[in-house]
UniProtKB/TrEMBL annotation:
<dbReference type="GO" id="GO:0006935">
    <property type="term" value="P:chemotaxis"/>
</dbReference>
<feature type="region of interest" description="Disordered">
    <location>
        <begin position="1"/>
        <end position="24"/>
    </location>
</feature>
<dbReference type="InterPro" id="IPR039315">
    <property type="entry name" value="CheW"/>
</dbReference>
<dbReference type="InterPro" id="IPR002545">
    <property type="entry name" value="CheW-lke_dom"/>
</dbReference>
<protein>
    <submittedName>
        <fullName>Chemotaxis protein CheW</fullName>
    </submittedName>
</protein>
<dbReference type="InterPro" id="IPR036061">
    <property type="entry name" value="CheW-like_dom_sf"/>
</dbReference>
<dbReference type="Pfam" id="PF01584">
    <property type="entry name" value="CheW"/>
</dbReference>
<feature type="compositionally biased region" description="Polar residues">
    <location>
        <begin position="11"/>
        <end position="20"/>
    </location>
</feature>
<dbReference type="GO" id="GO:0007165">
    <property type="term" value="P:signal transduction"/>
</dbReference>
<feature type="domain" description="CheW-like">
    <location>
        <begin position="29"/>
        <end position="180"/>
    </location>
</feature>
<dbReference type="GO" id="GO:0005829">
    <property type="term" value="C:cytosol"/>
</dbReference>
Length: 183
């Protein structure tokens, strides 16, 4: 049923389920880069991730670096550090890189650095209304860096209800902690 004339107040208040016309509403979204560390899902804001590099990118270790720094990479004439988020988030860094790992180039808190992730899952838009406040029960190691949680469903058969919680990380807070020698 299409209306050429404006809806009456009664029609406007009638639930959509009882009418045949559809009302679409634009909802603000944010772009996120979803990835995994130790099988747990995390995301960074899309505006903070400037580039995604394959795991085969050579990383050169330097003596005396903190546990949160894997080494440096040479990227288009620039030397950039590569950070292990594992150490900043209270996880154990992998003993050696593996095939599914990627490096996300992140720009935040006045610093550009590579961030080693175990697996890249997706780059997607999430409705702002889907972002939930992190619970008080969040681990102490994650609390300073997680700004929100949201549910994410991978492309899967329609009968699958596989939703995973994703922790949205604050790139500026992570890089500030890194610059302050935490991790």
């Amino acid at each position: 049923m299409t209306h050429d004339a404006p809806l009456s107040l009664t029609e406007a208040l009638t639930p959509n389920a009882t009418r045949n016309d559809t009302i679409e509403r634009e909802e603000p979204t944010q772009q996120f880069v979803l990835f995994r560390l130790e099988g747990r899902r995390f995301a960074l804001p899309g505006h903070a991730v400037t580039e995604i590099l394959g795991g085969e990118q050579p990383v050169y270790p330097l003596p005396g670096l903190p546990a949160s720094t894997e080494g440096v990479i040479h990227l288009r004439g620039q030397i950039e550090s590569v950070v292990y988020l594992h150490a900043l988030l209270g996880m154990t860094p992998p003993s050696s890189p593996f095939a599914s790992q990627m490096i996300l180039m992140v720009n935040a808190a006045g610093l550009t650095s590579g961030v080693r992730v175990d697996q890249l899952d997706d780059v997607c838009d999430i409705a702002q209304s889907a972002l939930k406040t992190p619970p008080d029960s969040l681990s102490e190691a994650l609390r300073p860096y997680v700004t929100a949680l949201f549910q994410y469903r991978e492309s899967a058969p329609s009968d699958s209800a596989d939703h995973d919680a994703v922790a949205l990380l604050d790139a500026s807070a992570l890089f500030t902690a890194y610059q302050n020698g935490l991790g």
